[in-house]
Amino acid sequence: MHLVLRISFALLFLSLCQPALAQYYEYGESTGTDPDFDYTTIGTTVLSITSDDVYSDPQTIPFPWQHYGQAKTTYYVSDNGYITFASSPGASDPNNTALPNASGPNDAIYAFWDDLGVVAGTGSPDKVETWTYGEAPLRVHVIQWFSVTPGSGSGFVYAAIRLYECGDFDVVLNYGNATGMTATIGTENATGSTGTQVSGSPNLSYPAIGSAGDDDVVYTFYWSAIQYDLSVTGLDLGDLVTPGDNEISGTLANLGNETVTGFELVYQVDGGPSQIDTISGVSIPPSGGIYNFTHSTLWNVPTGGVEHEIVVWAQAINVSFSDQRPCNDTYTTSVLSANDIWGFKRVLLEVFTGAWCGWCPDGDIVRSQIVNDFGQRVVAVDIHDGDAMEIADGIRTTFGVSAYPSGMVDRVVFSGEPDEPHSRGSWSQNVHQQLSSYTPLNVGVTSSFNPGTRQVDVTVDASFTDFAGGDIRFVCMVMEDNVVGSGTGYDQTNYLNTTAGHPYFGAGDPILGYNHRYVLRDISSAVGNPAVISTPAAPGDTAMETFVFTLPPDVDENQVTVIGMVAKYGDQVGQKSVANVISAPLGETREVPLFASSFNSGSTNDWTSTTE
Questions:
Q1: What is the rounded distance in angstroms from the CA atom of residue 439 to the CA atom of residue 341?
Q2: Phi and psi of 182, rounded to 5°?
Q3: What is the 3-state secondary structure (H, E, C) of 345-358?
Q4: DSSP secondary-structure letter at 181?
Q5: What distance in Å separates the CA atoms of residue 534 and residue 543, rounded to the nearest whole number?
Q6: How many C-beta neighbours within 10 Å does residue 530 have?
Q7: Please, what are the domains in the chain?
Q8: DSSP state, 277?
Q9: What is the pTM of this model?
């Protein structure tokens, strides 16, 4: 029997719980955490304001677990960034040291050991919480330090310890900006005679980490006594396949301490026959070496509209050895087969700008050229920051926007980019790429306006040309074009004023009376509401959602456009891409014309059609 393990962005080094044996720990470093882990989860609060140099009450590990070969059932949490399994831990120690150190605290795991406090601050409330996620026998128990405060230095720290039911543990640095710290990350046994610390301890600084899970720093500590352990860590299938032959490819990790020169790669579809491919002539380094595989047997998908479960694992390591850690062997994923019937694709271009931003006029030039080149197949909207046109959009926070001007094209992470927002030099080519991308649906939008109440009623609808699965949602925006104002909230800073040949050369700095295009005035939510669109959807299925907005009195309704889109939703970076989008002037209806309702090519020919 092969157990199911889902691993995404982080490489999780897990080990099987064994009888008490001599152990020591090695560690590997990786970036990003799996989508099932969310540091903002509301768990059980074990330390709250004010907790300084104290321990929590004893906490229970919800499954059998060992540390240095000894069974552990309870632990204490220190506000100073560590847990200890000692039965009588004494005083919480803020003075971190190198490991091992017999003077204590000992029998501990150090997430970010330094002088920390759970104290009142100016940001999110400090606390330490615990929770457990997943299903037996692959549960994960989390101890999360949330926005704790350095005793010296400044800023805040988020850090977590995750104990795996399958064995072993990791330390996650989630989010923070603390400075002036010199910390220790690692673990040591009950006597302080044996320990493992992350390189740089006890003088580690906290890295600059954003709130998204893709840049989490993960230190995974694993039992070093295992010789043979191959773990499939990812597949390249995505969440959609088409009828015909499909390649089974992905990555696996060698988590044992022996070099792997060969193995059998096996996959099953829907519990069917095992497809076995003998891999030889390779050299996968021990202790975290990565191998990219492609199975020699193609998977033939007979028809669309079926959700399939794919299970992949490795066996017969170096010809004759069994995997000694079977709980992390397999990777399981679900994919939906579709018929490759395309909707008529449009692209959303979201530009992040501000009147204070001196390079943003150049972003306006790039955006306007794209709109001119592609017409109504591109829907542009400018999201303002720090000026009179800023609103509480939620987009900048959700996607971690930190540079201006920057933009998102269909909220896709493109090759060479760490996340969705990227610089203006790539917008045009990425728009062109997305215009040729697959979409399983068409989108329509209709709206009405009451001048007396200034209420805007919008209906966004979707019609499916193909099968579609996953969490997909409607998002609605209200945009005003040609916004002109006066004062610092509208006058546009212009670093191009002295750049000869640029369209804004000599326009002034700032540019008074600047014409701000495509200004976002309201939004339903950054990522949409769940459970409105039922999935899996089949060709011919439809869905709709209604939205209500109120236009502020200073918004010119004659310049308002309504935008409707359907977007995917997932917890991680790259999982919120836009499937399709449409826009229409306020009070009008726009749907896909019949001649473009479905086809199976990526044509980028322009069209214009409005029905009222």
A1: 8
A2: -135, 95
A3: CCEEEEEEECCCCC
A4: -
A5: 8
A6: 10
A7: 4-223 (no CATH), 230-337 (2.60.40.10), 347-593 (no CATH)
A8: E
A9: 0.69
Q: Distance between CA 248 and CA 294 in Å, rounded?
A: 6
pLDDT in the model for residue 572: 76
Share of the chain above pLDDT 90, in %: 74
Residues in the chain: 612
Is the Cβ–Cβ distance between 374 and 346 less than 8 Å? Answer: no
Residue (of 91, 142, 117, 111) closest to 204 by Cα position: 111
Q: What is the DSSP letter of 213?
A: G
Q: CA 408, CA 413: separation in Å to the nearest integer?
A: 9
Per the model's pLDDT, the better-predicted residue between 325 and 406 turns out to be: 406
Report cis status (omega within 30 of 0) of the bond before 137. Answer: yes
Report how far apart the first and last C-alpha atoms of the chain are (Å, whole number): 60
Return the beta strands (E) in 427-556 as ranges: 441-450, 455-464, 472-480, 519-523, 542-550
Identify the residue whose tokens are 């920057």: 406
Contacts of 13 (CB under 8 A, 6+ apart): 28, 168, 170, 220, 221, 222, 253, 255, 288
Burial group, residue 551, by CB count within 10 angstroms (0-12, 13-18, 19+):
buried
Q: What percent of the chain has pLDDT over 70?
A: 92
Beta-sheet pairing, 184-188 with 230-235: unpaired
**Which residue type, as a one-letter code, is found at position 374?**
F
CA atoms of 3 and 211, how far apart (whole Å): 32
Mean pLDDT value of segment 82-93: 94
Which structure tokens are listed for 344? 């008529």
- Burial of 27 (C-beta count, 10 Å sphere; 0-12/13-18/19+): buried
Amino acid at 184: T
Give the largest Cα separation in the chain, rounded: 80
Q: For 307, how many CA atoms within 13 A lie in the half-sphere containing its CB? A: 10
Is residue 347 within 8 A of residue 431, CB to CB? The reply is yes
What are the residues whose beta carbons fall under 8 Å from the beta carbon of 160, sequence distance 6 or more? 39, 111, 142, 143, 144, 145, 171, 172, 174
Given a contact cutoff of 8 angstroms between Cβ atoms, the answer to whether 264 and 316 are in contact is: yes
Local structure of 360: helix, strand or coil? helix
With bands split at pLDDT 50, 70 and 90, how would you rate the model's confidence at 69? confident
pLDDT tens profile 502-535: 999 999 999 999 999 999 999 999 999 999 999 9
Kindly give the residue spans of alpha helices, DSSP state H, lying in 269-400. Answer: 360-374, 395-398
Beta carbons of 555 and 549 less than 8 angstroms apart: no
Asked whether the beta carbons of 381 and 518 are under 8 A apart, the reply is yes
Closest CA to 589 of 567, 557, 607, 562: 562
- Whether the CB-CB separation of 292 and 249 falls below 8 Å is answered with yes
Round to whole Å and give the CA distance between 367 and 352: 11
Secondary structure letter of residue 596 according to DSSP: G
Residue with tokens 């059932």: 73
Question: How does pLDDT run across 188-219, given as a tens digit for each residue?
Answer: 999 999 999 999 999 999 998 888 777 899 99
* In 458-531, alpha helices (H): none
Coil, strand, or helix at residue 164? strand
Distance CA 561, CA 557 (A): 9
3-state secondary structure of 366: helix
Which token pair is 244? 């015909």
